[in-house]
Amino acid sequence: MDKLLIQGGVSLSGEIRAAGAKNSALPILAATLLTDETVKISNLPHLYDITTMLELLGSMGIEPMLDETLTVEVNASTVSKLSAPYALVKTMRASILVLGPMLAHFGQAEVALPGGCAIGSRPVNLHIQALQKMGANIVVEDGYIKASVDGRLKGARIFFDLVTVTGTENVLMAATLADGQTIIENAAKEPEVVDLANCLIAMGAEIKGHGTDTIVVNGKPRLHGCSYSVMPDRIETGTYLIAAAATRGRVRVKDTVPGTLEAVLLKLEEAGAQIQVGEDWIELDMHGKRPKAVSLRTAPHPAFPTDMQAQFAAMNAVASGVGIITETVFENRFMHVHEMNRMGASMQVQGNTVTITGVPTLRGAPVMATDLRASASLVIAGLVADNETLVDRIYHIDRGYECIEEKMQLLGARIRRLP
Ligand code: UD1
Question: Does residue 302 have a cis peptide bond before it, meaning omega lies within 30 degrees of 0?
Answer without folding.
Answer: yes
